Amino acid sequence: MTDSNKSATLTVHGETYELPVYSPTTGPDVIDIRKLYSDAGVFTYDPGFTSTASCDSTITYIDGEKGELLHRGYPIDQLAGKSHFLEVCYLLLYGELPQAKDLEQFETTITRHTMLHEQMQYFYRGFRRDAHPMAIMVGVVGAMSAFYHDSTDVSDPHQREVASHRLIAKMPTIAAWAYKYHIGQPFVYPRNDLDYASNFLRMCFAVPAEEYEVNPILSRAMDRILTLHADHEQNASTSTVRLASSSGANPFACIAAGVACLWGPAHGGANQACLEMLEEIGSVDRIPEYIDRAKDKSDPFRLMGFGHRVYKNFDPRATVMKQSADEVLDLLGVENNPKLQVAKALEKQALEDPYFAEKKLFPNVDFYSGIILEAMGFPTSMFTPIFALSRTVGWVSQWKEMIADPQNKIGRPRQLYLGETTRDYVDIENR
Ligand code: CMC
Predict the structure, then answer these.
(1) How far apart are CA 419 and CA 431, in angstroms?
(2) Rounded distance, CA 113 to CA 41, Å?
(3) Distance from Cα 66 to the centre of ligand 1, integer Å
C-alpha cells in the first residue's frame, strides 16, 4: 500500500472530513474509511461489497475492463500455457516462481501428504450413498480438524505451513473419495509416482479389478483446469475463508466454510448448472427461447456461465478454457459434441444481443469447463468438487497472508438497521 499523500473530502451533516487515499501497485485508488465511524459517527453502505476493498493483498490482481488476471504479476494465459498446477501453487503460496530444487522439494512434500488418515474412511461411510459429493466435501474437509490436531494452532507458523500442505495434498483424495462413495465403488489410494492431476484422475476412475492407464491428454487438460481456477482474489468463497479465519478458527474449518460458499450456483456451482442448462437447451434452434427467458425480468432464469462481478469485457480464463475444450474433444476423437455446438452458438447469439452487450455479460470460466469435464467422464455432480480442489491453494494462500498480516482483526461488518425501534414486550394474552 503506497501512501500517495492524496486524500478525499467527505461532508456529512455539515462537517467535513479528510480521508486518506492509497494507491495500489495497479488498479483504482482506495479511500481509507477505517476511522469514519469514530470520527464522523456514520457507516458506509455497500451490500455485496461492490465498492469495498476488504483487505490488502499481494497475491492476485484482476483488471475487469482489460480482462486481465495476474497471479503474483504473471498473466493467467502464460501460466496456463507454460507452467503447471503445482508450480502455480508454489507461486501463489510463496510469491515467486520456484528454483528447480525448490519445486522438486515442494512436489515431494505435496505428494507425500496425499493419503488420508485411515479412520476418515469411516467418516465417509456415515453419509447417505446418494449424497452430493459437495455435501461430503463440506463435511470431510471440516472433519480434518478432528484428525490433524498437530496443525490447527494458527499462531504457529510451522503448523500453518503443514496445514497448507495437507490441504493442497489431500483435497484430490477427498474429492475422488467423495465421488467413489457416491457411485458405490471402492476407494482408490493415491500413488506417489504420479503427478497431481494424474493421481486425481486415477483415484476417480481406477478400479481394483484392472490396471488403469492415465491418458496424458486428459491429465494435461485436468492440470490446466486446476491452474485456471487456482485463485481469483477476494471472491465470495475466499472472503468467506478470510472472514471465518478472522476469528482465529482452525484452517480446516475455514476451508470447509469456503467449500460451502463455493457450492452455490452463482459461484462454483455454476459449472454444474451451466452443463445442465446446455443439456436442457439441447439444440441450437431452441437457443432464442432461452435468451428471451434470460432477458425476461419476471423469469428467474439466467444464462449460467455468463456474467461476472469483476470482468466486464471478457474472462481470460474462459478464452483458455474454450481453446482447451476444442483441443480435448478433438484429441479424444469426440466429433460434433452437441453441448459444445449449443455452447458456441449460444455464446455467439448472446454476444450479438444488445441486452448482453449493454450489461457487459460474457462467458465466464464455467461456460466451457463442464464440457471438458464431461468428456473426461465426470458426472455434473463432480464439477464443483473439482473447482473446490483447484481453489484450495487460493484459499490457503489468502488465509496464510491474512494470518501473517499484523493488521489482521476480526471481520465484523455493520448494518443499515431498518427494523423496529425499542418497544415493550406484550404478554401473549394481550397480543
Ligand atoms: N443472465 C442474464 N442476465 C444476467 C446474467 C446472466 N447470467 N448475469 C447478470 N445479469 C443481469 C442481471 O439481471 C442484472 O440486470 P439488471 O441490471 O437489469 O438488474 C445485471 O445483469 C447485473 O447483474 P448482477 O446480478 O447485479 O451482477 P453481479 O455482479 O451481482 O453478479 C454473477 C455476477 C456472476 C453472480 C451473475 O452474472 C450471474 O448470476 N451469472 C450466472 C452464474 C454464473 O455463471 N456464475 C459464475 C461466476 S464465474 C465463476 C466463479 O467466480 O465462481
Answers:
(1) 19
(2) 51
(3) 19
308 is catalytic: yes
Q: Which amino acid is at 248?
A: G
| Amino acid 1: pLDDT | 57
Ligand 1 atom 24, closest CA: 309
CA 178 to chain centre: 18
Cβ of 237 below 6 Å from ligand 1: no
pLDDT digits (tens, 9 = 90+) for 271-298: 989 999 999 999 999 999 999 999 999 9
Euclidean distance between CA atoms 396 and 165, whole angstroms: 9
Q: Whose CA is nearest to atom 8 of ligand 1?
A: 307
Query: Whose CA is closest to atom 27 on ligand 1?
Result: 309
What burial class does residue 65 get, using C-beta atoms within 10 Å of its C-beta: 0-12 exposed, 13-18 middle, 19+ buried?
Answer: exposed
Look at residue 340 in the predicted model and tell me its pLDDT: 87
Could you give the 3-state DSSP secondary structure of residue 235? coil
Residues contacting residue 65 through CB under 8 Å, at least 6 positions apart: 312, 313
Output the CA torsion sign for 194, 198, 201, 202: negative
What was the pLDDT predicted at 313?
A: 87
Percent of the chain with pLDDT over 70: 99
Q: How far is the CA of 266 from the centre of ligand 1 (A)?
A: 8
**Residue whose cell numbers read 488498479:** 27
Choice from 314, 359, 383, 390 to test ligand 1 binding pocket (greatest atom count within 8 A of CB) = 359
Question: Against a cut of 0.90, is the pTM above it?
Answer: yes
269 in ligand 1 pocket by Cβ < 6 Å? Answer: no
Provide the pLDDT for residue 217: 87
Spatial distance between the Cα atoms of 283 and 372, rounded to a whole number of angstroms: 19
Q: What is the pLDDT of residue 77?
A: 95
Q: Cell digits for 420?
A: 423496529
180-215 per-residue burial string, b: 16 or more CB within 10 A, e: under 16: bbbeeeebbebeeebbbbbbbbbbbbbeeeeeeebb
How many Cα atoms are found within 13 Å in the side-chain-facing hemisphere of 231? 34
| 31: β partners | 21
Cα–Cα distance between 187 and 204 in angstroms, integer? 9
Q: In one letter, which amino acid is 52? A: T
Residue 21's beta-bridge partner residues?
6, 31
pLDDT at 332: 83
Active site annotation includes 3: no
- Distance of alpha carbon 48 from alpha carbon 46, whole angstroms: 6
Ligand 1 pocket check for 384: Cβ under 6 Å: no
In the predicted model, residues of the chain with pLDDT beneath 50 are none
Measured between alpha carbons, how far is residue 55 from residues 32, 45, 62, 253, 409 in Å? 11, 17, 15, 21, 11
Separation of 303 CA from ligand 1 center, angstroms?
8
